[in-house]
């Protein structure tokens, strides 16, 4: 545990990332992550940041009262393979907003809930965790938080705990999502099954299937079920919180005209930098968000076309099947309240 004189300086400085939560000791783990390191890491995970052998451990009850007043906090919730990392990185402009990409702290909230956390205790810790992540990096700056999509089951709760927050719901069209899964190979096909397992555990799949049905579904059918479950959740979130707090964005619109889409996102979130020219030269728009390698305009679309062609038969059959499932379950394939 950190000694008492160190607590205020650590908790008061957002460069000390609140990285993990340990429910056994009710403590937060902090590690130093400067702003430049945020920009170079795809996700705020040890695999990208490097291992931290000696995190600073502070009891939650000691950390909570030392957190500075939070700045504006907004969210990007996504259903994977939709350029969400590019969006949160592009919104990171000093003086306007700081973007946080998939902090492990929020994955810990998911894991704890799945292990049986009591709802009232979980909500209290979640409120403290969000306040830690909302620590402003500079006066007047907002924090834009993009959780991993495994957090989506807690998205409505996070919005309820942050009544001043807005959120963008970002998704790829179903055929594009399926093509991404297909071209990423075996590891991704396994990942969509892990995703579905989590969605089922959280009771988020209500599409008319029996448990044994999933064993007879192909990898891309399982991927489509996960996409539909998240799409249904996004529709419920939009209906509950309304278009004043929730906007939606299509990945193809985002990648087709990124500067304009990022500017529209910034305007909706009230970030103050709302012109496409503010973002046209942003480095996040010109490189692969995962690898950091520069890419040419249109490369993502070319990769998608190649995947759609290579796996056309499988994707088309699953898309038709999924559309029938969506119709029966009343899941909208396109969400309303799109960013202007």
Report on the architecture of this protein:
By secondary structure, this protein is of the alpha/beta class. The protein has one domain (70-329): Rossmann fold (3-Layer(aba) Sandwich). Helices cover 47% and strands 13% of the residues. The chain has 15 helices and 8 strands. The strands form 2 sheets. Strands 5-6-4-7-8 form a 5-stranded parallel sheet, sandwiched between helices.
- Judged by helices, strands and strand pairing, the structural class is alpha/beta
Order of helices and strands: HEEHHEHEHEHHEHEHHHEHHHH
General shape: globular
Q: Please provide the count of β strands.
A: 8
Low-confidence stretches: none
Fold topology:
Blueprint: H1 4-11, E1 16-22, E2 27-32, H2 35-40, H3 46-49, E3 56-59, H4 60-63, E4 73-78, H5 84-90, E5 97-101, H6 104-114, H7 119-133, E6 142-146, H8 155-161, E7 167-171, H9 174-184, H10 186-201, H11 219-241, E8 246-250, H12 251-256, H13 258-269, H14 299-310, H15 312-329
Parallel strand pairs: 4-6, 4-7, 5-6, 7-8
Antiparallel strand pairs: 1-2, 2-3
